[in-house]
Amino acid sequence: MKQAGKIALGAAAAAVGAAVSATVVKAAMYQPETREAKAFPEEKVDLDRYKQNLSDALKIPTISDRDPEKVDWRQFERFHAFLRERYPQIHQNLSLEIVGKASLMYFWQGADPSLDPIAMLAHQDVVPVTPGTESDWEHDPFGGEEADGFIWGRGALDIKNHLIGVMEAVETLLEEGFVPQRSVYILFGHNEETMERETSGATLMCQLLKERGVHLEAIIDEGGAILPVRVGKILNINLAGVGIAEKGYADFEISVDAVGGHSSQPPKHTALGKIACVIRDLENHQFKAELTPMMQELFDRIGRRVCFPAKLITCNLPLLKPLVLEIMKQIPPAACMTRTTTGVTMASGSPAPNVLPQRATVNVNFRIMPGETIADVEQHIRDVSSVKDIDIKLIKGKEPSAISPTDSKAFHAIEDICFGMDQKNLVAPYLVMGGTDACNYEAVCENIYRYSPFMVNTSLLLTTHGTNERIPVSCMADGVAFFKRYIRAMCE
Ligand SMILES: [Zn+2]
Known about the structure:
Blueprint: H1 2-29, H2 47-58, H3 73-86, H4 88-93, E1 95-99, E2 103-108, E3 118-123, E4 146-147, E5 150-152, H5 160-175, E6 184-189, H6 201-211, E7 218-231, E8 235-246, E9 248-257, E10 261-262, H7 271-284, H8 293-303, H9 308-314, H10 317-330, H11 332-335, E11 341-348, E12 355-356, E13 359-368, H12 374-384, E14 391-398, H13 409-421, E15 425-432, E16 448-455, H14 458-461, E17 470-472, H15 476-491
Parallel strand pairs: 3-6, 3-7, 7-16, 8-15
Antiparallel strand pairs: 1-2, 2-6, 4-5, 5-17, 7-8, 9-13, 9-14, 10-12, 11-13
Helix pairs in contact: 1-9, 2-5, 5-15, 13-15
């Protein structure tokens, strides 16, 4: 018995030893894919002009609104005149159409018409400054001031920086005599921020392209940025997030009817009580969470870049998947990447404290994962609700986008350029939580990438749509250089 015990212990120790050394070997071999840093020739960027033009662009309050009557269209006319004045080469060499109320469609004819064109997207409009927060701004939100190493103003990060950056890139390429083989569209919508998909300039421009038989090779729009990630000695990278898909959206109004009456003689459950059960059921039965292939690719790419001791863990990601998923589900900003989310937002019952409700209503906001549909969400509500006599009404909805591939010419170009510019840059495909104009172009393009090539940290990103929106001047020249290199890579 004693002997047998020793043998068992020895066998266990040997097994653990073997497992540890296997893990050490595995970790040592868990390396980033060998990628040669392509050397790109220096790109000329006129940073002074870019700064001046961005600053002046921010002074024009191109604020959109769901109600076109409330939009000051003169500001968009001013913005168009401003672009005409500042970018003479573009306006001499590209054709321009105004689509819908104020969207801009520029077309740069390529030498080889047999190639599908690419499109560079951005939106001209900005959100207003929230009333009451004006005095929280350290600089005038529509002053375009440069101070403390930043250019300040509404639109500095969302997304006039990107729009003016594209104009700078194309203007400079034209000055240098560049002739694209592949045609280039520049498509600037005028009402992205209103999220009115049917009437958006982007939708109208896509319809126009479709009518004309145009199929696009690739699109770049706003979305991800370059995020510096520093975790002690474990990880030191710049995460270049390229959005390859975006979540869908659905607001459902769920109602229960009842007789109502005086609250002195209530039934056991009023309509509002029944709605409370619906809320409980929806919150207790969340959608199924999953580590999507996109997430796994993201973790894998990061996992290969951590320091050696940390790799002992990250190299085992496939084994750790259930644990990782369980942790992510507990953290809302991470959980939203794993499943369709359920957010109960509004509820109403009777109009007075002593009146039983004749109808009680709850509004629930869902953000839908690619692969699921608005119809799936409605079915989910019916399936999980223990109250069966409910009315379900879709108030507003947008299906999730398709998922763009990560092996296209455009994605490889983005990777090559990012890595070539800085070997700390790690291109990572990810799921965009908000909406962009880009998904309106699915009818004419499969390779849609949501990426703004500007290095901006998380706290600055939080200023978009908020107070003190501003862009660091230090990241601006690289943004234009990226756009120039991308156009060259796709069109040479
Ligand atoms: Zn935007």
